């Protein structure tokens, strides 16, 4: 959950988000080193009147500033491709949830259970209880077991939506007529908030997502009470 004046990312809840945070720090350090070097060279050129002609025209310098950027790009591309393939893999999910986007609410269906489906609407500001978060609370939360791979099938019934939960590292488009899938695994219990991340109309800001991660026994009791 984000907090006021937060500058960084939310705390990672899934292994994929941990990898994304590590890749962000890795890339940011490379950008920082390049920026420092360029700033140093600019300041050096502006403050000194001496010019070494053999250095400015040297073949070795041109070779270095051609090869070095290529090496840097490879250092960024390889970890990026690794994470992309990790995010795309769906290996032996133990539970499947189908998510449908509507204007302007989400509907969920637990395909492994008979008749376990519901709609999830944002709770209006006037109906919030003390401690509830404005524009983020819903009337029906998505309850999922922690430490288990869960496959989420995502589509839409009207316009483009996007099912996004930052702390889990998830952002998948909901496209009419197309079924996208993603995998999520939470390493700890808790409430995790997200929102629609694709402009979908006048009430785009009022499509929150709330996932409640619980132990397996609690999830089974919840399913029993919903059926």
TrEMBL record:
Q: Which reaction does it catalyse?
A: 4 Fe(II)-[cytochrome c] + O2 + 8 H(+)(in) = 4 Fe(III)-[cytochrome c] + 2 H2O + 4 H(+)(out)
Q: Which Pfam families match?
A: COX2, COX2_TM
Sorted alphabetically, which PROSITE patterns does this protein's record hold? COX2 (PS00078), COX2_CUA (PS50857), COX2_TM (PS50999)
Compartments reported by the entry: Mitochondrion inner membrane
Task: Explain how, and how many, cofactor molecules are bound.
Answer: Binds a copper A center.
- Summarize subunit and interaction data from the UniProt record for this chain: Component of the cytochrome c oxidase (complex IV, CIV), a multisubunit enzyme composed of 14 subunits. The complex is composed of a catalytic core of 3 subunits MT-CO1, MT-CO2 and MT-CO3, encoded in the mitochondrial DNA, and 11 supernumerary subunits COX4I, COX5A, COX5B, COX6A, COX6B, COX6C, COX7A, COX7B, COX7C, COX8 and NDUFA4, which are encoded in the nuclear genome.
Entry protein name: Cytochrome c oxidase subunit 2
| Species assigned in the record | Ctenomys sociabilis (Social tuco-tuco)
């Amino acid at each position: 959950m984000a907090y006021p004046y937060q500058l960084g990312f939310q705390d990672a809840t899934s292994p994929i988000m941990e990898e994304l945070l590590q890749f962000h720090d890795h890339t940011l350090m490379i950008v920082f080193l390049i920026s420092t070097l360029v700033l140093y060279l600019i300041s050096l050129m502006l403050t000194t009147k001496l010019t070494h002609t053999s250095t400015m025209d040297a073949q070795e310098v041109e070779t270095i500033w051609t090869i070095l950027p290529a090496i840097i790009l490879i250092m960024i591309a390889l970890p990026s491709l690794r994470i992309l393939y990790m995010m795309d893999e769906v290996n032996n999910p133990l539970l499947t949830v189908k998510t449908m986007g509507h204007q302007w609410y989400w509907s969920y269906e637990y395909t492994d259970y008979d008749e376990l489906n519901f709609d999830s609407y944002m709770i209006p500001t006037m109906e919030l209880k003390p401690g509830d978060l404005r524009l983020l609370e819903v009337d029906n939360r998505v309850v999922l077991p922690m430490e288990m791979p869960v496959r989420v099938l995502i589509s839409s019934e009207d316009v483009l939506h996007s099912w996004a939960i930052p702390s889990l590292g998830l952002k998948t488009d909901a496209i009419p007529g197309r079924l996208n899938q993603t995998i999520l695994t939470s390493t700890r219990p808790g409430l995790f908030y997200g929102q629609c991340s694709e402009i979908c109309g006048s009430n785009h800001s009022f499509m929150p997502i709330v996932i409640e991660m619980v132990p397996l026994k609690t999830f089974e009791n919840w399913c029993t009470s919903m059926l």
